[in-house]
Sequence to fold (724 residues):
Amino acid sequence: MITERFLFGPGPSNPYPEATAALGLPLLGHLDPAFLEIMDETCEMLRTVWGTDNARTLPISATGSAGMEAAFVNTVHPGDVAVVAVNGLFGKRMCDVASRAGAEVVAVEHDWGQPVDVERVLAAHPAPAIIAAVHAETSTGVRSDIAALGAGKGDALLITDAVTSIAGIELRADDWGIDVGYAGTQKCLGVAPGLAPFTINDRAFARRVERPQSWYLDLGLLGGYVGEASGSGGRTYHHTAPVAMVASLHGGLTRVLEEGLPAVWARHEEAGRLLQDGLEEIGLELFAAKGSRLPELTTVKVPEGVDSAAVRRQLLERHNIEIGAGAGAYASTVWRIGLMGHNARPDAAMLVLAALKEALRR
Amino acid sequence: MITERFLFGPGPSNPYPEATAALGLPLLGHLDPAFLEIMDETCEMLRTVWGTDNARTLPISATGSAGMEAAFVNTVHPGDVAVVAVNGLFGKRMCDVASRAGAEVVAVEHDWGQPVDVERVLAAHPAPAIIAAVHAETSTGVRSDIAALGAGKGDALLITDAVTSIAGIELRADDWGIDVGYAGTQKCLGVAPGLAPFTINDRAFARRVERPQSWYLDLGLLGGYVGEASGSGGRTYHHTAPVAMVASLHGGLTRVLEEGLPAVWARHEEAGRLLQDGLEEIGLELFAAKGSRLPELTTVKVPEGVDSAAVRRQLLERHNIEIGAGAGAYASTVWRIGLMGHNARPDAAMLVLAALKEALRR
Fold:
C-alpha cells in the first residue's frame, strides 16, 4: 500500500506537482546539452529567488546542511574570527561547522524563540572576518533582520542560512548585503530534499580559501561544473550532477516563478496568519516572539498535561498529517507546523487546525 | 518536447523502471515511520550488494565523490601515510582528497589502461595507515584485484572505490578485506545519481577521527541518522534525508536482488562480451589491458583520422545514443561505452554496435 501524507512539519513539505512530474522524466546524462540547458535555467531561476545577480549561484549536490558546510569551508581561513548569531539549532550548528573549518567562533547566544539582536551581534567583535546568521530559524519559527546585519557588517563577510526562507518570505541577497547564502529545496521551494541552492558574490569569492579542506564542496572547482567560467561550452567535469533532482528543482522553480515571488510570499503570509490566528482562537500559545513569527513555519506550545508525541501520532495515524516535534530542549513542549511551498494554502491551514482541535478534544 | 536518451556512456545509465517509479510516489517525511522502514530496508539491501555484514552501511546523502571524501576525512589522522594506487582519474582524485584530509600521500602511478600492480602498491611503504585503490576505474574501463590488496594489507585500512563495480561485477567487501568502501547509484545499480552507498567495518570505525573536518560526512553523527545505535527507535536528527532518492535506491535494489546478484553479474558479463567482441570484429582496438577489462564499461580507441566528438554528436543527434569521451589525456582518443544496470542487455550491445558502425562509415 502506498503511504500518502500531508507534510505539515518543518520539512520536507509536499512538493509542487511540477517538481514531482520532473522526477519521472527520462534521465539525461550530466553532460548532455539538454541537461546543461536545464542546469543553466535552474541557476538563472535560483538567482531570481535569491534576489541576486551573482554569477556563482548553483544547486550544490547535497542537502541544505552541506550548503552550510560549503559556506564555511570556502571562506574561513585558519584562525579567522566568525561571529555567529545563535538563536536556535541551526545557529548552533553553524558554530560547529565553522570551528571544524578552523574559525575562532564568537557565539552570540539568544533565548530560543527570539530574533537575532543585531546590535549585540555587531558589537560582539571589533573586526570579525565573518558574521553569520539564520534568516528563518527552522527550530523556533523565528525571522531575523538580515538587512540590518548587512548594513552594519563593515568589512566582514555575511553568511546567511536561508533554508526555510527561500521562496517563502522576502529574501533579497544583493540588497541586504548577503555575501554567501545557502538554502534547501524541501521547504518553501516545494521540491524533495537533496540539493542546496547556494550563492556567493564576487567579494566573498575573491577572499575564498584557495584549496579548501573539502574537495566535494570546493567552489573553485564547482565554478567549471556549472559553466560559470566560459559559458555552456566550458563545462568541466567535477562530479556527476544529481540530474533527476536538478530537473525536479527546475520544475519547482518554474512553478514558483510563474506564480511570481510577490504572490508566493503573499500566499505564505495568508496561510500562516490563518493558522496562527486559529491556534490562538482555540486557546493555544505561540512560541516565537510576536513580530518575528514566520508565516511558513509556526511554533506553538503544547498545552499543559497534553502528551505531545501522542497527539502527533494520532494526527499521523488517523489523518496522515505530519507535524513536527520541537527542537532541542523544546522537543516535547513545542510543536512545529509548516505550511510551506505547495502547502501554503488556506485549505491546508484549515485542515491542520481542525485536526489538531479534534486531537486535543480526545 | 521530452528528450529521451540511451545512456551508454560511463554513467548515469538508464535507471531500472522500479527506481524511476519510486521517484513518483508521494513524498514522505524524513522521520516518518514509513520512511524509516524504507531506509532500514535500503541499508540491509546495500549490505547484500556490498557483500558485507557491516552495521554501518548506508546511503550517504550526496554523489559518489562525496563517498570518497567521507572515506578519507573519517579515517585520516594528521600525517597518516596513505598509499594510493593511481591507474586512472579516480585514483588521482583520491590523492587530492586524501591530502586535503591531512594525509601524507604515497601515489603509486600506473599507465592508464593497466590494472593495479598489487606487489608494487604493497611494497610502496613499510607501514601505511591506509591503502586505497579503485576496483573498477571509470576513466579506463579496468578492473583491479582488490582481494589481493586485502590479503596483503597488513595493519593498514583498505579503502576501495566501488562506484562502477557495485551490482555489476563480483564485489565481496568482507571476504576481500575492504575496511571502507564507497560507491555511486548511477552506474550498475541503475538509479539516478545523488547518493553514495557507503560501508565501514568495526575495525576502521574504531580507528576513526573523532571530530572530522567535515560535519556533513561525520560518520560518528551519521550512525544515529540511520538508527545504527539503538534500532529504529533511536533515530537522531542529523540532516534531512534525501527521501525521494532513497526511495528510488530502494526501488533499484529491490529489482537487482529479485533478479539475484549472480544473474545480474552474468548479464553484465554477457552484454560486455558481446560489445567487446563486436568492436574487435569491426576492426577497433580496445584500450583496457586484456584480462582486466570491465564488462560494464568498455574503452575503445578512436580510429586514426576519425573525429571523436563528431561521432559522439552524430550518435546523440541521430539516435539519441550517448557514449562517453575518454578521460584526461585520452579525451579525444578513446570512447567509453557503458552497458550498466538496466542497460546491461544484448539488445543494448547490438544497438550501440550497429550505430557506431554506421557512424564510422559516414
Q: What stands out?
A: Residues 319 and 355 of chain A are 8 Å apart (CA to CA).
